[in-house]
Amino acid sequence: MHSSKPELLAFLAEVGSGILLGQVWIQPVDRGFRMCHGADRTKPFEELDPLSTSDLRPLALFTPAGGFRPLRGSPDLRGGWRYEARDSEALWVALELVYPGALVDWYAIQCAPSPVTHYRPYVERQTGMYRITAMLTPAQVATTAKACCAVSFCLKRRLWKDEGLNEDPAEAKSIIPCLEPCAVLMEFARKVYRMDQDASHALQISGEPLATVRAALEAALENRRSEVRDADFSHPLNPRRLQCVLDRLPAALEKTS
Asked: For the whole model, what pTM was predicted?
């Protein structure tokens, strides 16, 4: 079946003998396509658990541990499965279920004009509870994006920028682009602003105590507690909050040295 979708046609031209979209490996076979987790692409396809089209949405919604995935681009897609798309249209449906809008966004950046909405224009049109995100300084925006959009949390390549904040390097992320700040980023930006407003004094720490704090934060990030939801920024052990504090430690060291 031939597709009339320009996004799909352009993507198919890039597939070649196989392509990785996020964490999904796509390989053409006969008239159709095989899909599996990227980490499983060297395994015998027949040994993986077969999924139907109706299984793909739950696959995208939940982590291997059963937690909700607020971002489809998060690097925690469950492995061990296989899916067979009979033709390009079936492939489109499957990819829309796993990575909604990914091919449309990927195609958009191949065209002009640029579809990217940078941080300042995006937040300046916000109302209600997100108005305070426009009050973040460039340094706060950079800290927020570095923690919230790290490859350990999201595989989408951030193309939006701010003063002092460049886009993600092409080799650092997947081919799925991020064209504007997402809802998770906006909520985290609100939390960062509130946390900075609540800071009543600078923590004086250096030397061995600083090394201990750094090691504790790194251990907490590596051994994330399953009950802490990714988008629950009120929890002190939220991984993005931990990453944000960890990213600020070198600056704290310079101030206290």
From this structure: 0.84
For 226, the token pair is 């399953």
DSSP secondary structure, 156-215, as one string: SEE---BTTBPPPPGGGS-S-EE-S--HHHHHHHHHHHHHHHH--S-----HHHHHHHHH
**End-to-end Cα distance, the chain:** 66
Distance, in Å, from the CA atom of 114 to the CA atom of 186, rounded to the nearest integer, reads: 22
Domains of the chain: residue spans and CATH: 6-108 (3.30.1360.190), 119-256 (3.30.70.2320)
Q: How confident is the model over 87-119, as pLDDT tens digits?
A: 999 999 999 999 999 999 999 999 989 899 999
Residue 133 contacts residue 126 (beta carbons within 8 Å): yes
Helix H or strand E encompassing 57: helix 53-61
Taking alpha carbons only, the member of 168, 198, 181 closest to residue 134 is 181
Cis peptide bond upstream of 209, omega within 30? no
CA distance 38 to 79: 8
C-alpha 88/C-alpha 70 separation (Å) is: 28
Please provide the DSSP assignment of 60-105 as one string.
Answer: HHB-TTS-B-S-TTSS----SEEEEESSHHHHHHHHHHHSTTHHHH
Measured CA to CA, the distance from residue 181 to residue 35 in angstroms comes to: 29
Q: What gap in Å lies between CA 8 and CA 192, rounded to an integer?
A: 38
